[in-house]
Write a structure and sequence with these properties.
Shape: globular
Helix content: 25-40%
Strand content: 15-25%
Oligomer: single chain
CATH class of the largest domain: Alpha Beta
Bound molecules: NADP nicotinamide-adenine-dinucleotide phosphate
CATH architecture of the largest domain: Alpha-Beta Complex
Number of strands: 15
Number of domains: 2
Distance between the termini: 17 Å
Order of helices and strands: EEEHEEEEHEHEHEHEHEHEHHEHE
Number of helices: 10
Length: about 325
């Protein structure tokens, strides 16, 4: 094994700078588990970190990449052995802990999850934070009494990573899913994932003077935020829930309390970064059971780490469809 590994290295003294660098393994931070990283992913948050947008990286120098999957090389934690296939998503990677855009990573055992037998190492990164978040959103809706037999479920930002996985899982569980997208050209793709119908994203985010409108949705997975979330709130059915995941369309939420106090609508916050290991394993078990592997493969494209700087702006501009796996060896 070489003493060094290739990684993306981000510094910010006197200006943001991201470059490839060979890093000595001995420089890796403390942690019980040394992982040979095989795949990482490209999430919206990775796009932000790679382009120097504020709010992701909180410590420099940083190796970005919020997700990683690979093989254990060394472990001082009894629950992991050399050769185990493992995944880490969130847990401060690319924020305060060196992340997955690297040939090697050293991580805390409490952050590591064994990849379920029915999921390949590459598929674990096809899922990544986006798919993990989508599953969290579905579980949150279930815990709040959302049922397949009820009204339609709407998924916003449908063509993105969280949206695509949410549609595939919800459809497999028997929900009738309406996909909200700004891209007509991806309707066939979304139908293949399980969308039964479509709503243009501008219809959900259009301004309105009314605090509430006709009840339409039995549940929602929202990755867009802003005016879209405000529009959803006005049209949710009595007692229904919105799993609030993202901010692709904006962070401000201008609304009234009426949907909450007159229709008992629930806003369910989703955070994929800080999740206890026991719950992480449960979420991965649900992904193994409820996400069709063949569909996952069809929504996934693969790129090499050397292409990552070309792809980062694309995901921020909403031009990437589905999930993107990063082979860190090329
Ligand atoms: N809470 C958490 O822990 C967590 C975890 C993962 C992700 N997130 C957040 O969830 C969001 C989605 O993440 P992702 O990885 O799925 O990103 P993604 O692949 O880029 O998908 C985002 C989708 O949102 C839609 N969109 C983009 N810009 C928009 C705009 N200005 N107005 C309305 N819709 C817009 C697009 O869908 P269409 O083209 O189909 O309209 C795009 O494909 C991001 O905000 C991300 O930060 C949060």
């Amino acid at each position: 094994m070489s003493d060094t590994f290739r990684a993306i290295w981000i510094t910010n003294d006197g200006g943001f700078r991201a470059e490839f660098r060979d890093i000595p393994i001995r420089d890796l931070p403390e942690g019980e588990v040394l992982v040979r990283v095989q795949y990482s992913t490209l999430n919206y948050k990775d796009g932000l970190a790679l382009t120097g947008s504020p709010g992701v990286i909180r410590r420099y120098p940083m190796i970005p990449g919020i997700d990683l999957a690979g093989e254990v090389v060394q472990s001082s934690a009894p629950e992991f052995n050399r050769g185990d296939r493992v995944v880490v998503t969130g847990c401060g990677l690319s924020e305060t802990v060196w992340g997955g855009y690297a040939g090697m990573a050293r991580v805390k055992a409490a952050d590591v999850v064994p990849i379920p037998a029915g999921i390949s190492t590459k598929q674990a990164m096809a899922i990544g934070t986006a798919g993990f978040t989508a599953m969290q959103a579905v579980i949150a809706l279930e815990r709040n009494r959302t049922k397949p037999a009820g009204r339609d479920i709407v998924v916003t930002g449908a063509g993105g990573g969280v949206g695509s996985v949410a549609i595939a899982v919800l459809a497999k569980l028997g929900y009738r899913v309406v996909a909200s997208t700004g891209r007509r050209e991806i309707h066939d793709y979304l139908r293949e994932l399980g969308a039964a119908d479509f709503i243009d994203r501008t219809a959900l985010s259009a301004p309105s003077n009314k605090p509430m409108e006709a009840e339409r949705w039995g549940g929602a997975v929202d990755t867009v935020g802003g005016d879209t979330l405000a529009g959803l709130l006005r049209t949710m059915a009595h007692g229904s829930s919105i799993a609030v995941c993202g901010l692709a369309g904006g962070i401000a939420l201008k609304t009234t309390v009426f949907p909450l106090i007159l229709r008992a609508v629930n806003l369910l916050g989703i955070n994929s970064v800080l999740v206890h290991n026991t719950e992480r394993r449960e979420i991965w078990a649900r992904l193994e059971r409820d996400l069709d592997g063949a569909l996952l493969d069809r929504m996934t494209q693969e790129i090499g780490l050397s292409e990552i700087f070309e792809w980062a702006p694309k995901i921020l501009q909403g031009e990437v469809r589905g999930r993107t796996v990063v082979d860190v060896s090329r």
